[in-house]
Amino acid sequence: MDFTSSESVSPASGGPLTDMLRGLRLDGVDYGRCELGEPWAVFFPAQEAARFHFIGRHGCWLFSPSRQWLELKAGDALLLPRGAEHILASAPGVHAVPIESYSVEPLQDNVYAVSNGGHGAKTLLFCGSMHFNLGGSHPVLAMMPDVMRARDLMADEPGIPHLLEAMASEVTGNRAGSGGMLARLADVLAASIIRSWVENSGDGATGWIAAIRDRDIGRVLAAIHRQPDRNWTVAALAREMGASRSAFAERFTAIVGETPARYVAQMRMHQARRWLIEDRMRVSVVAARLGYESEASFSRAFKRIVGTAPSHLRTVNGVSEER
After folding, report:
1. C-alpha 69: how far from chain center
2. Do residues 283 and 314 make contact, with C-beta atoms less than 8 angstroms apart?
3. Per-residue model confidence as pLDDT tens digits over 240-283
4. 135-163 pLDDT per residue, tens
5. Are strands 111-115 and 60-63 parallel, antiparallel or unpaired?
6. Tally of CB atoms within 10 A around 117
7. Do residues 134 and 228 make contact, with C-beta atoms less than 8 angstroms apart?
């Protein structure tokens, strides 16, 4: 789902923030409509994709990545943007088993019906995995807390209560086509949670959030994210800000926390990663598109920033590298 695919999730503030969120997309991969009878506890292992949970009926407990129990009420929604390990349970202390251990039946498209053999009071959940187009290393995702609760953001995002009400109606009504409706609502709700967090992180925000709110540096960051494959020079970025190279570099580093060259290199490799995984491009083609003189020099730069060789990324994603 693209942040700009609907007026309901397009940032109203305009400017650099709009450009940054326009480049950040998410897509629901699979969802489960879970009806679980007490006692139950589901273990969700760590994964690259984000996790989303909506509690439709009866409430439950979350054992958070910080290893604390949090009580959840019916109507609560959670986003774990980096897919951290956690547990959902009918009560603290119930032995948790992996989600794969439960009965899973196809419901429609990418939505599944999940159930257990418990005979106690039944909790109704809607859970899913979501992929962000730039991965967990995108600056905005890397800065987010492990767990984001929709109710904590409702005061600053007026659309969230309506989305929660709509999800509650669909998940409890179990009408024809409700699975698809829930999947779409979950994507929009997750986008709203992220937008609200970015826009209302507090006046004391530092690093990337502070940078995107700075009128001049925010304009530069937006330009980089619009054209991550461009070989930006410090001089070109300074012109975007309307400052000298030295003044720009000093201010950028002070606010963002890293040099312009380092930030540009990271964004270029994020773009390369997308081409390799999503577009199935060969390493040699990606290297040429980014202006590297050789595949070897690109591979060295990619591994230095991403942490793995680009050919390995293609292999683990089902594409064998051919020279």
Report:
1. 23
2. yes
3. 999 999 999 999 999 888 899 999 998 898 888 888 887 889 99
4. 555 666 777 889 999 888 877 777 888 88
5. unpaired
6. 9
7. no
- 190: its two tokens: 């997750």
> Residue 287: what are its φ and ψ, rounded to 5°?
-60, -45
- Which residue ranges form the domains of the chain, and what is each CATH number? 7-199 (2.60.120.10), 207-316 (1.10.10.60)
What sign does the CA torsion over 240, 241, 244, 250 have? Answer: negative
CB 192 within 8 A of CB 184: no
Would residue 245 be called left, alpha or beta, if left means φ above 0 and alpha means ψ between -120 and 50 degrees? alpha
Q: Residue 50 in contact with residue 82, Cβ under 8 Å? A: yes
Rounded alpha-carbon distances, angstroms, from residue 188 to 4, 5, 12, 193, 248: 10, 10, 15, 9, 37
CB within 8 A of 137, min separation 6: which ones?
A: 266, 270, 306
Strand partners, 149: 78
- Helices marked H in the chain: 16-22, 139-143, 150-153, 159-173, 178-199, 207-213, 215-226, 234-241, 245-256, 260-277, 283-289, 295-306, 310-316
The first and second tokens of residue 6, run together, are: 């609907």
**pLDDT value at position 27?**
67
Q: Which two tokens stand for residue 15?
A: 């400017």
**The token pair that represents 176 in the structure block:** 């024809």
Rounded CA separation 95/118 (Å): 13
Based on its alpha-carbon atoms, the radius of gyration of the chain, rounded to whole angstroms, reads: 22
